[in-house]
Amino acid sequence: MCLADDADYLKHHGQIEEAIELFKKSFSLEREAAWAAVGSGIDNLSANVLIKSAAFLGYDAGLIRESEQMVGLALSRSLSADIAEEMRDLLENINFSRHLRLNGITLSDNEIQIVVAGNGVAHGMAREDDVNDRISTFKQIAIRTAERTKGRRFRTNGQPAKDIKDICMSYLSIPRAASFAVTMRIGETSENSLEDFQGGTNALIEDIVTNLTLANNGNVTALKERIKDQSYLENFVNLAKEMAPDGERVNLVGLTFKKAGADVPVELRTPKLKYREIASSLALSDSSGEELEKDSWVRESLYGVLYAANSNSDEVKLQVENKKYTIKVPKGLTEIVRKYFNTEVMALVSHNKANESFRLISIDLKEEEPRLF
To answer: Are 254 and 96 contacting, i.e. CB atoms less than 8 angstroms apart?
Structure first.
């Protein structure tokens, strides 16, 4: 456990390779102790705790098969309800980690594997919109990341410039049966189309995945450091929410990309509901970055049918039974609201009681929404 504590410390400080080596050593010792406990005839609970600990250490060490074996041993025994539930949850994580592996597929620097898994996903089969919507969202994120990185002002309408389109031209592989997996290529095969981003790896993809990981972890402070423009920041968080698991049909979204010649798997587990909390914290600043008067604003959830209010989509109308609300749309959300026009939605808004104005924070289909506020 001393080795495991040291490994946790190294992992927290970004020394991943060193951490994994310590996790492997701690797993080896803990597994030895677990098997000794099973053979010694000591009480069931003590042996089960050691088996559980070994299973988690194996997972942290990236020893997926070995961790799976310890989970199998645990589940074959008489377990308390809480340990049994932990082992089932870990088994789900193990299965998803297996899906993230490329299984003979070789990624280029400008390719990324996208995987979805969950109750609504069978082996190689998934609902069309559960997959296509996330692929489309990832492309939107890539376009906005390219525009931001090139120092472009946030575009509120129209199409991206030709050089951005060339960089973010996307290609898809045939879907694979790994829960459900596809490979997406960003940019042409020529290095010239990615010259502003190409290094030892595709820095465009790495930038996207790094920011998605921060959003998944709820690290708003780090996101603000990386994405300083408020419109780009609000746009990214709300697009990240569109990528996120819904917690029902899809409970895991995985990304695998190439970095310094190695495959890097990333798991996105935070459900959409949590992203609304991140969006809410960002909404305390207006588009110029100035702090809003917090005492004047309250958050509310409004349920109704969304309509366009004008051609620029900087305002929308929400029909709630017999009442119609006019809601101001921040620049970062203008492209996002368009997909919800003429649809029944849940709009999370900031409501200014002083002048009865409304500002959009986040939007979702009504059927997806458990009440937040």
So the answer is: yes
